[in-house]
Structures are given as C-alpha cells and as structure tokens.
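Design request, tokens follow.
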C-alpha cells in the first residue's frame, strides 16, 4: 500500500475537491481529475537523448489518436539499446476523441514534470499514461495500486453497499469477457432512489486472464470505498469506478448480462458456487496446513519480503524480519562490520537469495525517537534517485532499529581521497562524482515533494558503487521540513569542518547548509586532503582547506591546491579552476549568496562561467535548467 509517492495523498485530496466539478457535465468533459501518479525511480543517464525519445514517442501517440478514427488506446516506443522509451496511453472508452486528446495533453505535460527526464504513471478519471525505459504493456497488477474514495455516504448505506457490491462484481466478471475489455453500465438500485454508474476497463494490451486478475484486485480496493457514493480503483492494467452521479451518457452503457451467463453473476447460481466453494475451502485449508507444516519443518525462518532489486515500481518501505537480518550479517559479526559512526554501525549482509545489502544498526533508545524514526523511514523510503543510496527497508524490534540499504561496492569517497585507496581516482572520475553529488542534492532539495535537507554532507557520506557513481548516504540525520515551515532549527547535527557557519553557530538551517558542505567536499576532492586536518584552535575548522583555497584563488594560483596524485596531463586546467571557483561560491558565508543545488548542476553541466550564473540566483535560466529543477509547486 501507499506505494506511489506520498505526494499521491495530496492528489487524493485534490481529486476529492474536483470530484463534484468533473461529474457535472459528463458528456463533454475530458475528466482530467488526477487520480494518482507515480514517478520513476531512476532518470536515465543521458537526459538529452532521453528527452528526444520522450518527445518522439508522444508525437507518435498524438498522431495515432488524431489520425485513426475513434482511437482511444495507443502505444509507442523507441526501442534503442540506450535510452529506450516505451509509452502506453488510453482513454476511457466513453470519451470523445476531442476529450481524449485533451486528457492526453494534460497527462503529457504532467508527465514532463512528474520526475524530470524519467517518466512514470499518471492516472486521470478520463485517461491513463505510462512511460518506462522497459517494456511493460502486458503488466496488469503492480505495486502501487489503490483507491480514491468519495466522502459522502449513501443515504441507505446497507442496501447501497450490498447492491453496489453485486453490481461491481458483475462488472468485474463481465468486462474481461467483452471484446475491448471495457464496460460502462448503469444499475437502478432497488431502494428506488439511486442509480449507480460504473465503468471497468483493462488496458487493451493485457490478456483476458490478466484483466481478470487486475479487476479482482481493483474490486478489493474499491470495496473499501463502499458505502460512499463514489469510488475509483486504479492499477497499471485496469481501472474501476462507480458513482451515483452520471459520468458518462446513458447511451454509452452496454448490457452486461449476456457476459455473466455460464458462470452466473447473479443470485441463484452464485449460491451454488458459494456452496461448492465451502467444500473447496476445507480442502484448501488442509493443503495450506500441509504447506505450513512443511515450511516450518524445513526452515524456521521467514523469507525476506519483496524482491528488493530489479523493479522499477514504486513501493513503500519493506519491513524485514529481524532474524533474517541477523543471520544475513552473521549475527552482526565483527568480520561483517563496514564502519561505525556516532550512533550507528554498518554491516555487510548477504540475504538468502544472494543479494548483498548494507545493514545499518542504530542505537536509538528513547521511545519517542523511535516513533519519529519509523515515520521518517516511511517517507525516506520513497526517495529514489540515481545519486542517493536507496533505502530498501527496515526492521524494528525491541531496542534494535535496522536500516537496510543497497550495498555500495566501493565504499565511501573519503577513503579514495585521503584514506587507504588514495590516488585511485583520476580527474574524470572526480568530476563525475562532483556532478553526481550535486544532482542528488538538487533532487533532495527541490524535486522531491518535501524539501529534505541532509545536514551532514561530507566525504564519508558519499558512497561509490562499482562504477564509481556517487550516491549520497545517511539520511539518519535528515529532517523533513514541511514546505511552508520556517527553515529554522536549533538542533545541531552536522560534522565539524563541513558545517556552514550560520548553522554551526546559530542553528539556522536551510538547504544552503548542504550547499556549503558540498563546497567543502569539492575542495577535498580537488585537493585529496581532509578539510579539518588541523583540528586546533577556535573557529570553524574548515578554515584550513577553505582558507587556503580562497588565498590561492585571489592570487590566481588555483592549481597549487590540486592533489599531487593527479597526473597534470590528464586534467583540464580550466575545468579544475572552474570547479574550485564553484566550491568557493558554495561556501560563501552568507547563505543567500550560495547557489541552489539545481543552479550548481546547471553550472557544472554547461560551459558557462561560474560567476555569471551565480548572481542570477532567481533562476530564470535556460530551458535545460527547467528540466532539472522545475517541479510544479503542489504544496
Ligand atoms: C467532502 O468533499 C467536499 C468536496 O468534494 C468538501 O467540500 C466537503 O467538506 C467534504 N466533506 C467532508 C466531511 O470531508
Ligand atoms: C547524449 O545524447 C546526445 C544526443 O543523442 C549525444 O549527442 C551525446 O553523445 C550523448 N552523451 C552521452 C554521454 O551518451
Ligand atoms: C520536448 O518537448 C518539450 C515540450 O514540447 C520541449 O520544451 C522540449 O524542448 C523538447 N525537448 C527536446 C529534446 O526535443
Ligand atoms: C497473460 O499475460 C500474462 C502476463 O504477460 C502471462 O503471464 C500469462 O501467461 C498470460 N496468460 C495467458 C492465458 O495467455
Ligand atoms: C448519445 O447521446 C448524446 C446526447 O446525450 C448524443 O449527442 C450522442 O450522439 C449519442 N450517441 C450515440 C452513439 O447515440
């Protein structure tokens, strides 16, 4: 449950508000009330190429919808090895072509904002759009399905519930048997009052049995809405909706009775089936008991839930069995220990399916902290970005709090800069790491629906995967700020040497605290030395590295800062200088003078001088910036 971004909760509310409006003029209405949306986890590597493909597939879809008469379903793809794009769109069959195109245009522009450069799913009352980097057309039931209910209870709840349930069951049964996998129907309830309008639809690319499965799940979801007068259930392969208000014209309905035949949808035969089923249930129970016994006998442990890798679907946090993690880490053995921090230890764990994970064990004792922690974990588990370490799930047992993260083969950045693996990173890798960190932070600050300030950006919190792509780790200290709240906080959680002065001294917290930490990390990456390696005296300890960089900048002798292990022949002097200037701008003492991370991404991705961009801080910058940063403000 709750597997679309939590953002969807807001959408549900918006949907409520718009319900009555959209129902009014059922006949010529594109029905662009948003039901739900989910954005993809990982934007593709080359977003330019992706966007070209993205636009091309949409142009293709639009043409199909316009040119082929009454076409309400279409797919399009660019099936190249790199940046492939697959897209599927369909309208509810009762929409006119004009309304369908309107719904399409709305969905496309929503998708462009959904997760810039990556696609996802958007579901409206009137249409459905999904875009992925891999083929999905035959998928029907996927995590993230759910329902949106109206808020008015029917006047005769019991009768309404029973009869609407029967109606929806019939629709669920009939629709997979109807060519086109769509049915709109109206039924007068026997209480003399309400008529109920309902629609069931499967994507035309799924087969009948998947359609059946999908509607079964959808029925289970929508049933929660009864006895409210409106409800919708959504999934990837199907859609189910009912309302006491007409949302399609009477002449769009079909008679579903012929499709209920053989197996029998209504009363008498249903009873026979139920009787039969009761007999079957006993047999089933016996089999289940047998299976259970077998499981217990074979292995006392529960298998870990959920396939944690290899899915592009959005899902909420997975809860792990404590015992599973205990055995995966060999009882948190010293040999599996990867590191430890102030109040946590990290272990390498190998799950029974062979997947390697990182298990972070937190030493939090207060009950309140624990409650806070769990709710935060739930939010953070929905944060997905290529440059952020992914939280796979957690376990919460007694005093133990365990976080399960994807495992990063190359460990943390600091060991490559001034630790045991010093000298391994060439300039190209270092530059890519800088860009990656910037993108990850820009996502946390501006593209996720809640602004997340990391507060503790430092080289040891940047992990490297097998290919040296950087991923920002440790959201243990990140606090989620509601969009409208002041960014002030007195809680101090940073690491000396990386901490912005206004935060270290006054506790003033803003995204610019992370910009500062990022600037220090850049200096460490360039110099291969620790920011706080002269931990003596008073004042911010970063003065050493930062102060040195400032002086070198003033005398235009930037290259003296560069790590001596870097081969002077393989780095671009102008690039190094530019990055160093960027670091200095990011570490200015006035937070307002530091750029937003999305601006940093722009500066790094383009051949523009740093200074010019920095002062146009209210970014009315290029369209490329907009792709990276423009997230519709939904708060
Ligand atoms: C139900 O939704 C309507 C808008 O559709 C809203 O005005 C009303 O306050 C809601 N009622 C309740 C009880 O939430
Ligand atoms: C990104 O895509 C563009 C346009 O297709 C191409 O010119 C460029 O070489 C690609 N860059 C990378 C790094 O793949
Ligand atoms: C894709 O389309 C959008 C909106 O029509 C446009 O702003 C953008 O420049 C296009 N991108 C490419 C790469 O063609
Ligand atoms: C229907 O499609 C699903 C998903 O592709 C597939 O697993 C299943 O075998 C198909 N069933 C039939 C009867 O073709
Ligand atoms: C259905 O009824 C509407 C008016 O309510 C009319 O405009 C439309 O042509 C009708 N459609 C069909 C297929 O009869």
């Amino acid at each position: 449950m709750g597997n679309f971004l939590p953002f969807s909760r807001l959408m549900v509310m918006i949907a409520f508000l718009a319900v009555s409006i959209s129902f009014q003029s059922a006949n010529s209405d594109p029905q662009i009330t948003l039901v739900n949306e989910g954005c993809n986890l990982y934007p593709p590597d080359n977003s330019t190429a992706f966007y070209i493909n993205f636009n091309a597939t949409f142009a293709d879809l639009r043409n199909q919808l316009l040119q082929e008469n009454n076409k309400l379903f279409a797919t399009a793809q660019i099936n190249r090895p790199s940046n492939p794009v697959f897209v599927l769109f369909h309208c509810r069959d009762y929409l006119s072509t004009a309304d369908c195109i309107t719904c399409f245009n709305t969905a496309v522009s929503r998708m462009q904002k959904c997760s810039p450069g990556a696609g996802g799913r958007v579901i409206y009352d009137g249409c459905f759009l999904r875009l992925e980097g891999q083929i999905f057309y035959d998928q029907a039931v996927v995590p993230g399905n759910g329902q949106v209910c109206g808020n008015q209870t029917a006047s005769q709840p019991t009768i309404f519930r029973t009869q609407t349930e029967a109606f929806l069951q019939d629709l669920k049964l009939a629709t997979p048997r109807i060519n086109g996998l769509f049915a709109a129907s109206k039924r007068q309830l026997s209480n003399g009052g309400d008529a109920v309008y309902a629609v069931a639809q499967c994507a035309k690319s799924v087969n009948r049995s998947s359609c059946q499965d999908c509607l079964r799940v959808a029925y289970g979801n929508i049933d929660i809405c009864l006895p409210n007068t409106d409800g919708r259930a959504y999934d990837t392969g199907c859609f189910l909706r009912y309302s006491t208000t007409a949302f399609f014209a009477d002449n769009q309905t079909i008679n579903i009775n012929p499709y209920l035949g053989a197996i029998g949808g209504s009363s008498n035969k249903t009873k026979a089936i139920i009787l039969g089923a009761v007999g079957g249930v006993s047999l089933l129970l016996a089999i289940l008991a047998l299976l259970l016994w077998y499981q217990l006998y074979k292995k006392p442990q529960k298998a870990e839930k959920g396939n944690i890798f290899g899915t592009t679907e959005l899902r909420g946090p997975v809860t792990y069995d404590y015992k599973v993690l205990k055995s995966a880490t060999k009882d948190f053995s010293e040999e599996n220990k990867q590191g430890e921090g102030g109040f946590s230890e990290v272990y390498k764990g190998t799950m029974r399916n062979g997947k390697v994970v990182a298990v972070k064990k937190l030493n939090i004792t207060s009950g309140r902290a624990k409650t806070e922690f769990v709710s935060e974990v739930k939010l953070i588990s929905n944060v997905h970005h290529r440059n952020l370490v992914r939280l796979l799930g957690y376990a919460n047992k007694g005093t133990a709090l365990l976080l399960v993260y994807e495992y990063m083969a190359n460990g943390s950045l600091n060991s490559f800069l001034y630790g045991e693996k010093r000298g391994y990173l060439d300039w190209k890798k270092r530059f890519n790491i800088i860009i990656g960190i910037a993108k990850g932070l820009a996502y946390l600050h501006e593209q996720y629906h809640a602004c997340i300030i990391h507060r503790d950006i430092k080289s040891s919190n940047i992990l490297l995967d097998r290919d040296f792509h950087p991923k920002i780790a440790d959201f243990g200290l990140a606090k989620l700020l509601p969009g409208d709240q002041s960014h002030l906080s007195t809680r101090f959680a940073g690491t000396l040497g990386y901490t912005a002065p206004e935060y270290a001294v006054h506790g003033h917290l803003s995204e610019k605290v992370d910009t500062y930490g990022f600037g220090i990390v850049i200096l460490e990456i360039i110099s291969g030395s620790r920011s706080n390696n002269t931990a003596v005296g008073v004042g911010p300890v970063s003065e050493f590295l930062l102060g040195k960089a400032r002086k070198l900048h003033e005398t235009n002798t930037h290259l003296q800062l560069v790590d001596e292990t870097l081969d002077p022949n393989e780095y671009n002097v102008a690039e190094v200088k530019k990055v160093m200037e960027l670091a200095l701008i990011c570490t200015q003492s006035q937070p307002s003078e530091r750029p937003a991370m999305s601006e940093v991404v722009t500066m790094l991705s383009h051949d523009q001088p740093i200074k010019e961009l920095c002062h146009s801080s209210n970014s009315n910058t290029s369209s490329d910036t907009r792709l990276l940063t423009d997230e519709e403000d939904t708060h």
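Comment from the thread starter after seeing the answer: thanks! The radius of gyration is 28 Å.
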